[in-house]
Amino acid sequence: MTVPTISTDMVGRDDDLAELRRAFDRAAGGEPSAVLIEGEAGIGKSRLLREFQGELAGAADVHVGRCFDLGSARSAYGPLTSILRSMVERLGLAEAKAAIGVGAEALRMLVPELGEGIAVRESTSPDALRDAVATLIEAAADSAPQVLVVEDLHWVDDSTLVMLTYLLRTLQQGRVLLLITCRTDDVRRGDAVSRFIAETTRARIIERITLERLDRDATRRLVEQLHGGELSETSLDRLMDRAEGVPFFVEEVACCAAGPLPDSLRDMLLVRFDQLDDDARHVVRVVSGAEGMLSHTLLARLVGLPDDRLDAAIRAASHVGILSVHDDEYTFRHALLREAVHEDLLPGERARLHRAYAEALEAKATALDRCDRSSLAHHWHLAQVPDRALVASVAAMQEAKARFAFASAARFGELALELWEQVPDPEAVAGLTHVRLMRQIGSILRNAGEAERALSVAERALAEIDESIDPAEHARLLRDKGLFLANLGLPGAMELFLEALEIIDRAVDDDQLHATLLNGLAGKYMLASMPREAIITATQALEIATRADDPREISVAHNLRGTCRTYLGQLDEAFADFREAARFAPRSNGGAELRFHVNYSDMLGLLGRHREAFDVAAAGIVRARELGVERASGTLMVQNMVEPLLTLGDIDGATSRLSAVPIGRPQVLNDQYVVLTRIRVLAWQGKVDEAERMREEWMPSLRRTGELERQAWYRVVENDIALDIARGQWTDALNAVVAMTQDEGFVLLHAYRLLLESGWVVAEVRASGGNVDAAIAAIRGLWAEIPETVRDDDWAAMLDALLDPSIAGVRAAVDLAESDDVPAIMRGVTRLELARMLVADAQRPEAQAVLADAAAAAATIGHVPLQNSIAAFGRASGLMSHAAAPDELELTARERQVVDLVAEGLSNKQIGERLFISSKTASVHVSAILRKLGVSTRTEAAMVAARR
């Protein structure tokens, strides 16, 4: 006879426990931390967590959410729901609602008790939900350190993964510790969990603790603790051979130590089960069908035993360590035990058990107590009843979609597609057509960020649809495919929108759909730099949207038309459009308002009205905060605040705002634009190595976007120029400017400031003896293509003074550079050029004073490349004999590595291979080293560096 053996003291995990303590200390100090506790099944992940949670009593609020083994039918936000509800309960309903503010309506999707009745999906958004979750966590962390525990990540639903990724990147401060456990042997390479772990590890936003197997001494201590006596070497050898240091298996083997050991692991896990009487085994088999905690009421209904026999059976199963009792709910002590019992069922037994669960859940459901559709789909699927499983899967898809759990909704949709072929007359059973189901799944996949899968589903649906039966559905599918192509950076979207509009014109009477398609096409024209076509199309959209009284589409049409009219220099008409866009935007659901603030602030910035641009973007941030979407939709608004701040020379303000924006998703357009600005900031600060690393990581995505969106192309060009300037590669910078002027695409206003600032590049190349005549002609040619209504006379005078300098002209430019909204670098650039002119004219005293003013202007805005240029001229001319720019004489860490390899005699290619960088990047570093050390050869550089 064996005895139950459940260890009381944890062994062999002191170092792991110490790591958790350190993570909590960081979190308690206000630095959010995240730890992944990983290891094979039975290694002791949950046990380590329980031990740690015991230490936290009174020091933190601990909230636990568990993922359950539901196959493909996993409940959306499964573990997060219980965590958030626990937080709300701990804070108190009134305090939680006050802290979340407008986001409470969105959070009701997951925590219904935050309001009355059923949450209305149309009144909120996915961004609002994400923002509300983050706000609740931060509010709770204000009152006490928060420890959020997600157990069994290997069974997590995709929507929870999306939310966890968002939280890990968004929570920048607060007393928050996220602890996640994961069974590594259940994570498949390339699946969603594997990608999550890889991406968060690479981004260094999660720490990993891998639990190792117990060594021989730890195994001995564990078994002796269980049995209360010494263990012989022979018995220890048997344990190590069979349990191999896995704590759970050690306990189970120890349970069998008095008799012969079972031949297989499954038989070993069933030893306790086989000791039970018939009633207890029946109860345990029934509990094995549950996806999580099983209530006493539901268990009693399922087992059909009298109360006294049921109580005795539960007590027996609990006594031998198979079941755990939590208030009035039951679960297995360990998931491996549940798996072993469930797999031991015969196929017919298993199907009947899951059918009983499904029927019991449906019978229990009422209008006020709806059953979880994902659980129904799971049980009907395993019960092998495809028609009921299809109905439940479609319902679960809609339920998850309504909660903005798009990744989970996609899973249920794909399960429904799998079941479709198994059901006679599936359209009648499911209540929708196969094409409609596929279109919904495609839309869900797109919202889940799975554009490739969405495109595949849309193409299948288009191959199946009969336009003569449902032309409107055909038009929507064409529109959807166009959107999916655009998301993937692939061509063809414009043609699909045109095809959809041809169908609408011919066979569909739906003004709202018509206006939406026209605005979509106008947006594609705008991004493709076809402003005239966009204006015509947006005007058509405006007419139809007005007839349909659709304020959102009216606002969007004015917005698009105003943007494109600005590009053409039709400023009076453009500003009238933007006023109308602002007037109609508040009557939409908030999206049109934010779109107005983004586009209008962007246009003001392109026109050189930087202070106004900042104010409009700042007002957009306020509105995003009121709508509860500041962290998500507010990202582009932050970007539009940073750009004018940077141009006006407020590098500290720009940097602080950028640091609060989490990034890390190269496929996400918003993140790409933020990264482009960060690269420009780093170049401004002279942090070339860091800027290069970011550029190399993101450039594939940025280039793809630039091929479809011309405004992104200009931003990439701008960064190329900025990095060349930061390296001191003036000829390369000028070549990049000339290449921009020679591009055959439509000239956007993004070239306006770039052309003005390119005057500095011309001046530097000219000063070094380079020929700039062809470049000047190219710059003047592109400048002439900027609409006259946009070109400012003062800007034109400054550019002309730099391209064709004279003392009088540059003096005037110095004065003009002091005007409002002029790019801040022009104050230093024009003074530097004036100092050059004065030195050439032998007016050295005045030149010295002017150069000092230039240095002060550059230092004020922290523009390191400009400081370098001023210092270099100061030394060369003798005006500033002791001048040195901040990084002029100091080699960076990377440059020290490069110069050491130069000393070894390595070529640029060999240096690149050794440091895992390109040979061109190695060449850039070598050039910078030569400049900083004031030498002309690699040999001299090695000698000077060695002396230092």
Beta percentage is: under 5%
What does the largest sheet look like?
Answer: 5 strands, parallel
Mean of residue pLDDT values: 85
The secondary structure category is mainly alpha
Number of strands: 8
What is the radius of gyration? 33 Å
Low-confidence spans: 883-889
| Helical fraction | 55-70%
Ends distance? 78 Å
Shape: globular
- Helical region count? 49
Features:
single chain, 5-stranded parallel beta sheet, globular, mainly alpha, 49 helices, 948 residues, 67% helix, 8 strands
3D structure, described in words:
- The structure is a single chain.
- With 948 residues, this protein is mainly alpha-helical.
- Helix content is 67%, strand content 4%.
- The strands form 2 sheets. Strands 2-3-4-1-5 form a 5-stranded parallel beta sheet, with helices on both faces.
- Helix 7 (158-170) links the parallel strand 3 and strand 4 (176-183).
- The chain is globular.
Annotate the secondary structure layout:
Blueprint: H1 14-28, E1 33-39, H2 45-55, E2 61-66, H3 78-91, H4 93-100, H5 104-107, H6 126-143, E3 146-151, H7 158-170, E4 176-183, H8 192-202, E5 207-210, H9 216-227, H10 233-243, H11 247-255, H12 265-269, H13 271-274, H14 278-287, E6 294-295, H15 296-303, H16 307-319, E7 323-326, E8 329-332, H17 335-343, H18 347-364, H19 373-382, H20 386-402, H21 406-420, H22 426-430, H23 434-447, H24 451-464, H25 471-487, H26 493-507, H27 511-527, H28 531-548, H29 551-567, H30 571-584, H31 591-606, H32 610-626, H33 635-647, H34 651-659, H35 669-684, H36 688-708, H37 710-727, H38 730-742, H39 750-767, H40 773-785, H41 793-803, H42 807-816, H43 825-840, H44 844-861, H45 864-877, H46 893-903, H47 908-915, H48 919-933, H49 938-947
Parallel strand pairs: 1-4, 1-5, 2-3, 3-4
Antiparallel strand pairs: 6-8, 7-8
Helix pairs in contact: 3-4, 3-6, 7-8, 9-11, 10-11, 14-16, 18-19, 19-20, 20-21, 21-23, 23-24, 23-25, 24-25, 25-26, 26-27, 27-28, 27-29, 28-29, 29-30, 29-31, 30-31, 31-32, 31-33, 32-33, 33-34, 33-35, 34-35, 35-36, 35-37, 36-37, 37-38, 37-39, 38-39, 38-40, 39-40, 39-41, 39-43, 41-42, 42-43, 43-44, ...
